[in-house]
Design brief:
globular; 7-stranded mixed β-sheet; alpha+beta; 2 domains; 413 residues
């Protein structure tokens, strides 16, 4: 027997896009069901960077105190150490108060906080261990989502269905929507090491000897990402764990004393980096947001924040349409198209910026970027050019190309 739920909006995926969209819609008085395939949010996410744009949004939702209570660290600058020379690329202290930093917080804690807040709304339902399988269509229109749970099949009937189930979206695949892929020449090997006994300055990236290593500071450890040539992970597996530890120590000598904590290559996880986006984010009765609409690379850590901004754009566009009894289907589809019109260009611009960053990193790992001591042109770039562009980079990285705020009248007072 198939269990059935009736709602106004059904969201597949309880990640940042899905949970923020669900929370805002529920606060707006819209009946919403979120389907999350796991039993909780306690998983090892790597993208835990919460940017000023998202922090400002959480303040707008009245969740600033709850957000600050989550154990986190703060990065006010993004530095890179290139061949032993420290370069400050981005300085968030140039942004308006209060959020002049990126917050590094466990995504599971953030999602749990959002879920707890959303559950306070009578119009919100979170169904855990519910895996979205496909859309349900009637007369060429999506009218809900078919899912499976430990108790059996589930059908959720909805005026609007939302695919927020990630870059491997089952709902998107079922709809036959195929994103355009923009080739990325790298993969990332994710692992963690304890913080060294001797304090180490927060540094986003270390570039040395043909490699680039990202070191994301967390309260008790560093979440690290070694950038490698796409498809080359088998070479590292063949070389073994000792060679891998030595590679990390050579790139970031301050980590040499803690690389032994990488127990084996089983502790090293491969992330196949993707940059892609859909040509059409919607079909009658359904809208894709977040990674389901556009997969971002880890560059600048903007993925979570762009997903959240999609969710805000969705709420701003759809709430006025969905608040009326028996929402008009044509109006719903027009509002979904408006979300793409608003979010597609800033997404494309950021993805282009990420691709440029990948090319620059590729050149940096192939040649000497900064000589020791720096040559005249290198000193000019560091001392004159970088200080001029830091405020621009801070705004683009911190807020994105089109930051979103919840529109007046969306949230119920």
């Amino acid at each position: 027997m198939v269990e059935q739920l009736d709602t106004t909006v059904c969201i597949a995926g309880g990640g940042p896009a899905g949970m923020v969209a669900g929370l805002i819609l529920a606060r707006a008085g819209i009946d919403v069901v979120v389907l999350e395939k796991h039993s909780d949010f306690l998983r090892d996410f790597r993208g835990d960077t919460v940017h000023p744009s998202t922090l400002n949004l959480l303040d707008q939702l009245g969740l600033g105190t709850e957000t600050n209570a989550i154990d986190h660290s703060e990065l006010s600058t993004l530095d890179a150490v290139i061949d032993g020379i420290r370069v400050r690329a981005v300085d968030f202290t140039t942004l308006p108060a209060p959020h002049r930093y990126i917050a590094m917080m466990p995504q599971w804690d953030l999602l749990t906080m959002l879920a707890d807040e959303a559950r306070k709304q009578p119009s919100f339902r979170l169904v855990l261990e519910a895996t979205a399988l496909s859309e349900i269509q009637e007369n060429g229109r999506v009218v809900g989502i078919a899912a499976t749970t430990p108790d059996g099949p589930l059908r959720v009937n909805a005026a609007l269905s939302v695919a927020a189930d990630g870059r491997d979206s089952a709902l998107r695949k079922s709809l036959g929507l195929v994103p355009t892929d923009y080739g990325v020449p790298i993969d990332v090997l994710w692992f963690r090491v304890p913080r060294p006994t001797k304090p180490m300055r927060d540094t986003l990236a270390h570039i040395r000897g043909g490699f680039a290593l990202v070191t994301i500071p967390r309260p008790e450890y560093f979440q690290c990402g070694l950038l490698i040539r796409k498809g080359s992970f088998p070479e590292f597996q063949k070389a073994g764990i000792e060679k891998f530890r030595q590679t990390v120590a050579n790139i970031a000598p301050r980590l040499a004393g803690v690389t032994a904590e990488i127990g084996s290559l089983d502790d090293v996880k491969l992330l196949s980096v993707q940059i892609n986006r859909l040509d059409n984010w919607s079909a009658p009765g359904v809208l894709c947001i977040g990674d389901a609409a556009h997969a971002m690379s880890p560059a600048f850590g903007v993925g979570i924040n762009y997903a959240v901004q999609d969710a805000v754009a969705l709420a701003n566009s759809l709430v006025p349409v969905l608040r009326v009894p028996h929402p008009d289907t044509a109006a719903i589809d027009a509002a979904c198209a408006a979300v793409q019109r608003r979010r597609a260009r800033p997404t494309a611009l950021m993805q282009r910026m990420q691709r440029v960053a990948h090319r620059l990193i590729g050149r940096a790992t192939a040649t000497t970027v900064i000589h020791t001591p720096p040559r005249l042109r290198e000193r000019f770039v560091i001392a004159v050019l970088l200080p001029r562009i830091r405020p621009i980079l801070a705004r683009i990285v911190g807020y994105g190309f089109r930051p979103e705020r919840i529109a007046r009248g969306v949230l119920r007072s």
